[in-house]
Specification:
12 strands, alpha/beta, 2 domains, 44% helix, Aldehyde Oxidoreductase, domain 3, 278 residues, four-stranded antiparallel β-sheet
Length: 278
């Protein structure tokens, strides 16, 4: 479920960016009382995400708009599918077209990519999660899209959980010291995750009492050794060099979670268009 207040804020910012002083083309060509019909069409196969956001774009511009979604978020699309049918003020449809499509294409691309990764390991007891490698200002929508594609969210922001990475370890004076400092100050409800690159660091993180241990850029053999060493005393996350070609082998090492930056930072927009009809 999307929070309407957050979604509206994102949309309002996007519309202001796209037409800070109005739409000089539409406002000079189209009568303000003109009505039109349009369809959102899938130009390629994928997983839909963001249909409610797209609807909200048009509803902000025309509160009386008719918007019929033929698919729900998380559902599969085939090339040529009519995703939605729209009828409303022509100016509103034209002004909202690019913003609605940009968001819908981006979110659907993320959902599609996430689903591809999830399908690779569907028979294994592992979760596919995202990262903070998101588009500034769109993290809320992009993380929702990951869920629509079958994935799970990692922490939403730096305020959500303690993740002690290599630079934190260096600056704090070691893993044990870093965990001690964090544990001393944070609420008891917050978990601590430590990024490790060697088996020695894994052992140190275990001794320090880390709740989650990230295995960063380790070989398959080293990950297997780390999982064996941890022996369910902490949640194990694999990260780094994860691709569609490597994810199954990574999952087979016995890790609990695999974080994939590519879910959000290197996706190509799913091809969706809006066409006016008679």
């Amino acid at each position: 479920m999307l929070d309407k207040i957050i979604v509206d804020n994102i949309i309002q910012n996007a519309l202001k960016e796209d037409m800070p002083l109005g739409d000089i083309t539409t406002d000079n060509l189209i009568d303000e009382n003109s009505k039109s019909k349009a369809k959102l069409i899938a130009k390629e196969a994928g997983i839909l995400a963001g249909i409610e956001v797209a609807e909200r774009v048009f509803r902000i511009l025309d509160p009386q708009v008719y918007f019929k979604a033929n698919f729900k978020d998380g559902e599969s699309l085939k090339k040529g599918d009519i995703i939605a049918e729209i009828e409303g003020n022509t100016r509103a449809l034209l002004k909202g077209e690019r913003t609605a499509l940009n968001i819908l294409q981006r979110m659907s691309a993320i959902a599609t990519k996430t689903n591809e990764y999830c399908q690779k390991v569907k028979d294994l007891p592992v979760k596919i999660v995202d990262t903070r490698k998101t588009t500034p200002g769109l993290r809320y929508l992009e993380k929702y899209a990951v869920r629509a594609g079958g994935g799970t969210n990692h922490r939403y922001c730096l305020s959500d959980g303690v993740l002690i990475k290599d630079n934190h370890i260096q600056a704090a004076g070691g893993i044990k010291k870093a965990v001690e400092l964090a544990r001393k100050s944070i609420p008891h409800t917050i978990k601590i995750e430590v990024e490790t690159e060697t088996l020695e660091q894994v052992a140190e993180a275990l001794e320090a009492g880390a709740d989650i241990i990230m295995l960063d850029n380790m070989s398959y053999d080293m990950m297997k050794e780390a999982v064996k060493l941890i022996n369910k005393r902490a949640v194990v996350e694999a990260s780094g060099n994860v691709s569609l070609e490597t994810i199954y082998d990574i999952a087979c090492t016995g890790v609990d979670i695999i974080s994939v930056g590519k879910l959000t930072h290197t996706v190509a927009a799913l091809d969706i268009s809006m066409k006016f009809i008679d």
